[in-house]
Amino acid sequence: MNEILLDVRDLRASVEGKEILQGINLTVREGEVHAIMGPNGSGKSTLSGVLAGHPAYTVTGGSATLHGVDLLGLPPETRSHQGLFLSFQYPVEIPGVSMVNFMRAAVNAKRKFQGETPLTASEFLKLMREKRQIVELDNKLASRSVNEGFSGGEKKRNEIFQMAMLEPRVAILDETDSGLDIDALRIVAGGVNKLKTENNATIVITHYQRLLDYIRPDYVHILYKGRIVMTGGPELALELEEKGYDWIKEEHK
Question: Has residue 32 got a pLDDT over 90?
C-alpha cells in the first residue's frame, strides 16, 4: 500500500473566534489526487490556509501530519521545506523582486534544509528552462518581477511553474481554475498532470466539475459547514454538477 503523505484527524480551526473547521478527517496517500468541493463558506480555503500555516487561522483541535511530521507545530517556511505547496486562489504581485531571484532563493533554501548544496547560477537557469516548458511560461514573464502585470491566467500558470520548481510531496491547489479561460485551464491542468508521480499527491479545491475534466481525481470530498460530509469517486463531482449543492444542504440541515 502506498505511503500516507498527509493525515488530518479531527482538525478544528477558527478565525477571529468563529470556528470554521469543525472536525476535518482526510488521508492522502502517494500517487493520489483528491478533489475538495463545497459551497461558499464551507471551509475549503480555510483548510488550505490552516495546513499551509496562515497566521489568520487558529487551530483549536486535532492534528495534521505530513509523511509523519507534525505540521501544525511548524512555521510556514518549514512546512514548505517538508514538501507542502499551496497554489493561491489570488496570487499576489511582488514588485521589485525578479522571478529568477525569487525562485532561486526558494529552491536553494529547500536544498539547504535537505542538506544539499545550492544550485549554481547555470544549474538553476537550466532547471528553470526545463520547468518553464511544462506550463508554457514565456521567458519574458519568467524574467520579470513576481506576477507583476501578469494576467489572471499567467499568474496561475506561474503558480504551477513554482510547483514544478519546488517538487512538493503534497500540492494544494486552491481554486486554481477561478477566472481561467479554457486555453489557460488546459495549460494549467496539463502542467499539474505532468508533475504527478507515484511519490507525490495533489489536493484540488474547486467549485466546478470543469477542472476535473482535465485533472481526474481518485477521490472527491464534499466539505460543508466545516466538515467532510461525503466522499466518493469522480462520479460524485458529476452528481454535484447536475444537482448543485442544495441536496447536500437538505441532507445536513
Answer: yes
